[in-house]
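Quick one: structure for this chain?
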Amino acid sequence: MESCPPEKIIIALDGFSSCGKSTFAREIAARLGYVFIDSGAMYRAVTLYAMREGAIENGVVDERKLVAMLDQISIDFRFNTLRGASDIYLNGEMVEAQIRTIGVSNCVSQVSSIAQVREKLVKMQQDMGCDGGIVMDGRDIGTAVFPRAELKIFMTAEMPVRVQRRYDELKAKGEEVSKSEIEANILSRDEADQQRKVSPLRRADDALLLDNSRMSVAQQMEWFEDVMCRRVCK
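Got it. Here's what it folds into:
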């Protein structure tokens, strides 16, 4: 990690779920010509695999069974020219839509709290970013995956805003879920992410705080460009 070339920096973007981290990170990557890596999607992919293979039943994770399966899991990202973003592939299968369901959302925090899962995915994420020129979003990018990242941002937003964003995302995909169910899921994930023993969600000491509750994507990019200029273009 420390040998990454300075001309292509690592941008670590952490924060709570449904704060628009991935949308923001994609815009940054497109603007800079960097690679965007959605670390949360990787944990969702592992969760999807566990559900398919019987390591998760009725919302309960069989940790021992899942850990035994980890060597069978391969994850990579491939750029999709039609939508101008990268899709995630699980063992060669594109699973971009399947990992975004409420069923996966309800179990992903349990899966991401397993030390062996985090160890495997953190190593994969560090390998993906060792040459710099990446924007990676998640829960522990600036604290555990790339603690020496040149630019760290921590995102948050008010709960009603987060619920509405998640509701709109699911509705656009044809999934009918109530806002009360979404809020319960978000609250549960927040608690699990912040309380887990391995790499809990927290703001790195040197991370800039961005509350985007009342900001459009364009306004967020204006904020970012100012930050990038002050932090990097010296």
